[in-house]
Here is the input.
Amino acid sequence: MNPKMITTMPDERGHFGEFGGRYVPEMLAPALDELAEAYEKWKNDEQFQQELNDLYRNYSGRPTPLYFAGNLSKQLGGAKIYLKQEGLGQTGAHKINHALGQALLAQKMGKQRIIAETGAGQHGLATATVAAKFGFDCTIYMGEVDVKRQATNVFWMRQLGAKVEVVTEGTKTLKDAVNAALKDWMWNVATTYFLLGSTVGPHPYPTIVRDFQSIVGVETKQQILEQEGRLPDYMIACVGGGSNSMGFFNAFLDETGVQLIGVEAGGKGIIPGGHAARFQGGRLGVVEGYKSYFLQDDDGQVMKTHSVSAGLDYAGVGPQLAYLQQQKRVQFVYATDNEVIEAFRRLARTEGILPALESAHAVAHAIKLAGQLPQDKIIAVNLSGRGDKDIFIVADYLNDQYWKDFCARYSEYGLSGEYDG
Amino acid sequence: MDKIAQTFDRLKAKNEIGLMTHVVIGYPNLKTTAAIVEAMVEAGTDMIELQMPFSDPTADGPTITKANQIALDNGVKMRDCMEMMGRLNEKFNIPFLFMGYFNLIFNYGYGRGNSYGVAKFCRDAIDAGASGLIVPDIPPDEAQEGYLDACQQNNLHPISVISPNISDVRLHKIAKVASGFVYCTSRTGTTGRPEAIEFDWLNTFLTKAKQYIPVPLAVGFSLSKREHLERLRGYADVAVVGSYMIQLFDREGIDGVRRTVRLLKG
Ligand SMILES: Cc1ncc(COP(=O)(O)O)c(C=O)c1O
Here is the structure.
């Protein structure tokens, strides 16, 4: 493969090899054309770039640190592990990067209303945040299952002034939230900007989201050169739709000496309906506007997925990642729920860092890999988010009595019940 | 001559606006779908779209989305859809079209024999007597990649779906591939919300569309009354009534469907 082919992708109709494209009802074509045109116009505009960089720096807190996880590396006795700390930015996850970029674009396009889908609630939170900052009217679609397990993010989104619409159709998770947002867009296509939260959906979204996320990899490159004087041997990121992994990998696609590894959600193991690892039993399909790998049954019905992390609990994967997998540029592995919780606890105890459960998938694989490698190897892990949002899931998974008691008392007496005993 | 062309010739001769009704295969169950179709045909519908249920019906509103889900919960498979198409064509002589999302066609027949996909779907569909396909998520740009060819080779009409917000450039593109008829939505948005239709605005668009498009025009979304059909007369050749049929069935059963189709046909 000619490496330059990767970075100049996709073609003008949004294809990454056979993947991607734009499979949507004709009524969305004008909006996607308008978006593609606006993006082409603004992406290299100097003032736009300046405004975005200012937001990245002074609003979101970029650059995020690249931290050498010395304790964890030592404990494992192998390769050096570096963590790109995306969780330290505003709203606690990388999602703010593409939310800021797209909000700025929406503003330039003169839109007044934005809508978004969310799984873990991190993209919804980032969208609600930029909506508050830019003064957009904002509606977030979220599956009922996710609303329950990510209640804190729902609360914060509402505090930020967003409407959170609970989606009760289908599997009541991320894919159904995407569908609901698409439907809203069909109704309000002239006035509304659909702020999509990952490198999925119809062209030009996979490209736009990747580009606004690519700052993560650009910084990582510079930081690792500063700290180590060379590029890493491995880069690891978790993969839901692909926004954090594509952002992390993009600046390294042509660096063929760097092995890129995507970690999918292995859930309860690779059994039908028990996981969200699209490259373990997924098949080529066309869903939600793009062609890629989807977990589906023989008839092409999209299957139920499972993951301990809401953000990876999704049946499809970004088209560029599907292409990079096919071209063997990105290797895909998976981590199970148990391994993920283990990794979460380990990182907390060794480094004092609570990773998002999504990001803990990447950590879990780094833990597996590092011990098998000599000490002069370097692994860079994208810690796409921090774990505060996952308090209910982790406590539930660990069956933590203290937290359960607190919740019971709180629901009955409020905070006074907690303090007064 | 194919059934769709025959139908339009007949409508033209009688100076009538046609009616296309809609069912979701397997809603509320397979047997009742067949009974609903029978009632529609008896009452004089001109064409029927048979929707193949899908897990992610992106262009459909709550009524049809729910019907899709119930059909799937009933265990309806693509095999059942083909069988239904075959049986209905043995029994009735009007055109039946498959409506559904592209993934069902793209993955059709997977795990059953060596070949699967669009070409196999088209072969089986024409064998079952289908007259055309209505696939809302395969716009002309992507349809070039095998879908149009497979339809053409099998004498199936690939019905394009357009909306009044379409650009002239894209209208040109659609006109080039139009076959059978073109399905125009009465507005943007999904199926199934009873909305006041802006007929003056819509008919202005239809007049323009007719200049480009060499085949008849069908109009659907939010249509439910004879009066709607009257307003479209002269601008559209067929009116499509979808979600309303399901809502009607839910409220008044098969008799309600039969009575309403008669009323719609005037
Ligand atoms: C912290 C975090 N990491 C990763 C993901 C997965 O998405 P993506 O693959 O687009 O990065 C999410 C999604 O919600 C997330 O919140």
Observations:
- Chain B has a mean pLDDT of 95.
- The longest helix of chain B spans residues 243-265.
- The pocket of pyridoxal-5'-phosphate is lined by residues A 93, 95, 119-120, 122-123, 198, 238-245, 311-312, 356, 358-359, 384-385 (CB under 6 Å).
- Chain B touches chain A at residues 54-59, 61-62, 65-66, 69, 72, 77-78, 102-104, 106-108, 110-112, 136-139, 141-142, 160-163, 165-167, 170, 174, 185, 188-190 (CB under 8 Å).
